[in-house]
């Protein structure tokens, strides 16, 4: 199965403009439409400030083990 991903906008008349895909001419295709939510963009500094140290003092391997043990009890 071949996957083609692209971004576009729905036009005012409700149509979608898609790029030319010559390798799929005369092939059946499935089309999935997802609404993209506008996400707040943050700077690298803001990201690091928010997430740096979240696992400080923790053992990631031990946390994974505990999670898996709880999940598959």
Q: What attributes characterize this protein structure?
A:
73 residues; mainly alpha; elongated
Provide structural commentary:
- This protein has 73 residues and is an all-alpha fold.
- It is built from 2 helices and no strands.
- The longest helix is centred in the last third of the chain and has 12 residues, at 60-71.
- The mean pLDDT is 87.
Order of helices and strands: HH
Oligomer: single chain
> What's the Cα radius of gyration?
22 Å
Mean pLDDT: 87
**Terminus-to-terminus distance:** 37 Å
Judged by helices, strands and strand pairing, the structural class is: mainly alpha
Strand content: under 5%
Number of strands: 0
Low-pLDDT ranges: none
Q: What is the makeup of the main sheet?
A: none
Bin the helical content. 25-40%
Q: What is the count of helical runs?
A: 2
Overall morphology: elongated
Topology of this protein?
Blueprint: H1 44-51, H2 60-71
Short description:
The protein has 73 residues and is mainly α. It is built from two helices and no strands.
